[in-house]
Amino acid sequence: FASEVAYIEQYGAEEFNEMLYETEMQLLNLKRHPLVGEEAIEALNAKRQLLVLECEITDNLFEDEIQRPLLLDGPLKKAYAIDLDSEAQGNAVETQTFLFDFLNHQNRFPIYTTFFAFEEEDKDNRAFFSQQHMSFTSHVLSRQKQTNGWLRGKRTSTSESHFFTVKIENAKMLELILEHAYRVASMNELFMFSYSNRLSIQQEVETTYRKTRVLEDRFVYPEETTVVIVGHDGGMLYVLSNEEHFAYDLRTDWAKRLRQQLPNDTMIRQLNGEWFADL
Q1: Which of 25, 131, 146, 233 is deepest in the core (most CB within 10 A)?
Q2: Given pLDDT bands bounded at 50, 70 and 90, which one contains residue 151?
Q3: What are φ and ψ of residue 158, in 5° steps?
């Protein structure tokens, strides 16, 4: 690049070589950005930069990391945590904007969103969906909480969480839903999107002395779908997918396939700790 030639002329080849040794940029990438100069700064600042991290799918992933009552059927091995880099990192407003651009970029409707709803806001939510001509269903998940009691044994209590699933038929509806309900994600409650409408509830039950009780309910998405979950106070996304263009596959370059699904003003800046100039 012209800026690199100018740097060598001013500071010498040895200084430039030191920069080559220290950089984590993929130097053999023909689409890389300049190492120095205003061009380098402008190229990085012109795009939203993402940090992408692989997450192993284990029994504890949803409970410990994503912290959501969710299961995904099918041969899924990886999930991906996507975070905006630099000053936008952890910023719920920036993440909300990126989520809209990301889903709208797919140009794939309908899409279904499921999110937590405060029970006292039930009437207002239903009125909003009706006003905007949105189809929806409601769900209740229950969970048994068990605490140690006195001599007579143990005490249990049941908590209930209320959710809505809304069918989004176009970009305008997507924008309205995000404006209406994204604060739920900012409060670190469940807020997720899927291309499948076959969401079901699975009950974990326990039977003792011929008595059966529900320990916990979970949402279950079927095989062959993509789920995008908002996490960490609305400032991060998780992408889980069994679909070919998203699903993890060692035989292909997953990062490049993901890049094709991103808005044009977005770049993968880091994947599993490895930095990229452009991807």
Answers
A1: 25
A2: very low
A3: -115, 130
